[in-house]
Amino acid sequence: MRRTIFAAEHDDFRESVRGFLTKEAVPHTEAWEAAGVIDRDFWRKAAAQGYVAFQAPEDLGGAGIDDFRFNAIIDEEAAYTGTAGDGFALVNDIVAPYLLDLTTDEQRERWMPGVTSGDIVPVIAMSEPGTGSDLRAIASKATWKGDHWSLTGSKTFVTSGIQADLVIAAARIEREGVEGMGLFAVEAGAEGFTRGRKLDKIGRKAQDTAELFFDDVTVAPENLIGEQGRGLQLLMKNLPQERLSIAVTAVASAERALEITLEYARSRNAFGKPIGSFQANRFSLAEAATEVAVARVYVDRCIEAAVDGSLTAEEAAGCKYWTTELQFRVIDLGLQLHGGYGYMEEYEIARMWRDARVQRIYGGTTEIMKEIVGRSLGL
Ligand SMILES: Cc1cc2nc3c(=O)[nH]c(=O)nc-3n(C[C@H](O)[C@H](O)[C@H](O)COP(=O)(O)OP(=O)(O)OC[C@H]3O[C@@H](n4cnc5c(N)ncnc54)[C@H](O)[C@@H]3O)c2cc1C
């Protein structure tokens, strides 16, 4: 079905993103996977092309383009080309809204030029060893010391945590007269801020993921992002876009998996015929193709809703869980139809399979997404 959400400027943008990723990312994917981290030069090159935090105003190095369709195009092209890493989704879709919408002019001027040039990698640290789904149980605490905050606690599973130059950490506030949480910006090099090991994941191997530790880190009052005590509400406000971003990747990955599986099923023979011509396989692929097409229409509708500001938390949650579950099913079918070759690292479907698994977990698990949808049903 023809997509209807894009204009000519989006199509041109897609073409340039695809060309850039094909030239600058695809040839290095294997090396980045082996290193467990993406080359910083690549990130600077992407930033020089205007692909990083382009929502920022021009005087801060961005393009002033606040249109989620451009974000979606980068996410989709990263999935279609098999580009390693989650950097674009992390910075453009998840962290930029915190840095642009919740910050003061002074904070934006301090951080955004570095973010848009690729010199500052910003990350978000909510999850902790003791809690992920239940953000209210965050134990990191920020204690007011009269003229600064003291931040103490541990974070885990932080995407780009090894490369991070600026960490937005959620912490419980300990200050007389203030209840709730706050978001604190910690710059690399701050005394008491250390990184743990690079976590050894089963997939998304080129993307570094890390533990971060804060031991009585001094945080200046001007590094508080948004209002003190409202950290949880601020996280909740931005999570729908994070979930849509994951859904966009999910559908694009499912489309890519379907494409390579169809090619394989047409060309691989067994018992004298292409494996795709057996009715069982043809039916499975027909079901997958139909479900992916349905998902595509729903995600596109959610992208439109994000653009006009009407995407609800429930719509984003439903979209995230349904598309990521579908992504995994379609990729698993694709791997099965590749037979033994599907289990071999040199086959794209194998990498897609191990990379897909986490989509049902991060950004809020499928179970938590169903809770969010369920709560809206008046049950
Ligand atoms: C590769 C990767 C990258 C990540 N990147 C980041 C990042 O950049 N920043 C960040 O802050 N976090 C990040 N995360 C953390 C991620 O968001 C959490 O792992 C996720 O939210 C789940 O939290 P948890 O791991 O603590 O699981 P838990 O919350 O302990 O959940 C364990 C299981 O219990 C289930 N469960 C929990 N509560 C309920 C309930 N009420 N009803 C039914 N079932 C329930 C869950 O669905 C899950 O199946 C990342 C994680 C991974 C793996």
From TrEMBL:
<dbReference type="InterPro" id="IPR050741">
    <property type="entry name" value="Acyl-CoA_dehydrogenase"/>
</dbReference>
<dbReference type="GO" id="GO:0005737">
    <property type="term" value="C:cytoplasm"/>
</dbReference>
<dbReference type="InterPro" id="IPR046373">
    <property type="entry name" value="Acyl-CoA_Oxase/DH_mid-dom_sf"/>
</dbReference>
<dbReference type="Pfam" id="PF02770">
    <property type="entry name" value="Acyl-CoA_dh_M"/>
</dbReference>
<feature type="domain" description="Acyl-CoA dehydrogenase/oxidase N-terminal">
    <location>
        <begin position="8"/>
        <end position="119"/>
    </location>
</feature>
<protein>
    <recommendedName>
        <fullName>Acyl-[acyl-carrier-protein] dehydrogenase MbtN</fullName>
    </recommendedName>
</protein>
<dbReference type="InterPro" id="IPR037069">
    <property type="entry name" value="AcylCoA_DH/ox_N_sf"/>
</dbReference>
<keyword id="KW-0274">FAD</keyword>
<dbReference type="GO" id="GO:0003995">
    <property type="term" value="F:acyl-CoA dehydrogenase activity"/>
</dbReference>
<dbReference type="InterPro" id="IPR009100">
    <property type="entry name" value="AcylCoA_DH/oxidase_NM_dom_sf"/>
</dbReference>
<dbReference type="GO" id="GO:0050660">
    <property type="term" value="F:flavin adenine dinucleotide binding"/>
</dbReference>
<dbReference type="InterPro" id="IPR006091">
    <property type="entry name" value="Acyl-CoA_Oxase/DH_mid-dom"/>
</dbReference>
<dbReference type="Pfam" id="PF02771">
    <property type="entry name" value="Acyl-CoA_dh_N"/>
</dbReference>
<comment type="pathway">
    <text>Siderophore biosynthesis; mycobactin biosynthesis.</text>
</comment>
<feature type="domain" description="Acyl-CoA dehydrogenase/oxidase C-terminal">
    <location>
        <begin position="229"/>
        <end position="377"/>
    </location>
</feature>
<dbReference type="InterPro" id="IPR013786">
    <property type="entry name" value="AcylCoA_DH/ox_N"/>
</dbReference>
<dbReference type="InterPro" id="IPR009075">
    <property type="entry name" value="AcylCo_DH/oxidase_C"/>
</dbReference>
<comment type="function">
    <text>Catalyzes the dehydrogenation at the alpha-beta position of ACP-bound acyl chains. This results in the introduction of a double bond in the lipidic chain, which is further transferred to the epsilon-amino group of lysine residue in the mycobactin core by MbtK.</text>
</comment>
<dbReference type="InterPro" id="IPR036250">
    <property type="entry name" value="AcylCo_DH-like_C"/>
</dbReference>
<feature type="domain" description="Acyl-CoA oxidase/dehydrogenase middle">
    <location>
        <begin position="124"/>
        <end position="217"/>
    </location>
</feature>
<keyword id="KW-0285">Flavoprotein</keyword>
<comment type="similarity">
    <text>Belongs to the acyl-CoA dehydrogenase family.</text>
</comment>
<keyword id="KW-0560">Oxidoreductase</keyword>
<dbReference type="Pfam" id="PF00441">
    <property type="entry name" value="Acyl-CoA_dh_1"/>
</dbReference>
<dbReference type="GO" id="GO:0033539">
    <property type="term" value="P:fatty acid beta-oxidation using acyl-CoA dehydrogenase"/>
</dbReference>
<dbReference type="InterPro" id="IPR006089">
    <property type="entry name" value="Acyl-CoA_DH_CS"/>
</dbReference>
